[in-house]
Amino acid sequence: MNIKFRLYSKQLKEYVNPNDLHLTMSFDGDIFSYEEGKLVTDQYVIEQFAGAKDVDGKEIYAGDRLSFTCLGMSYDRVVVFNNGCFLADDGHDDDNFEFLDDYDYKVIGNIHE
Question: What pLDDT, on the 0 to 100 scale, is given for residue 99?
Fold first, then answer.
């Protein structure tokens, strides 16, 4: 699996290409702007690739909203990274699904919409 990230700009309210903005990310998650000459971590949300694609071939990242069916029941969940694994999270601690290839996930949006 490739380790990939995407970057959401809180100011622009859209996903951005860090190379276009002359940004770099450190191993500890800090984001540095070469143009501004300072850390700009608080202006962005970093979301990691979950290593899977949905039924349409779209890459799934932490922060994506998913729709899927399990044992005949439909679920809408948000992808989170917790305790070393990706989960399909319902916002509570009682009904989370480990992110597995066994389901036909459909990306229906993200947490920023």
Answer: 66
Contact 100, 50 (CB under 8 A): no
Say what the pTM is: 0.86
Q: Do 31 and 41 form a contact (C-beta atoms < 8 A)?
A: yes
Give the per-residue pLDDT at 27: 86
DSSP string, 18-59: TTTTTEEE-TTS-EEETTTTEE-GGGEEEEEEEEEE-TTSPE
E strand spans, 54-105: 59-61, 64-70, 73-82, 85-89, 97-98
Q: Are 79 and 91 in contact (CB under 8 A)?
A: no
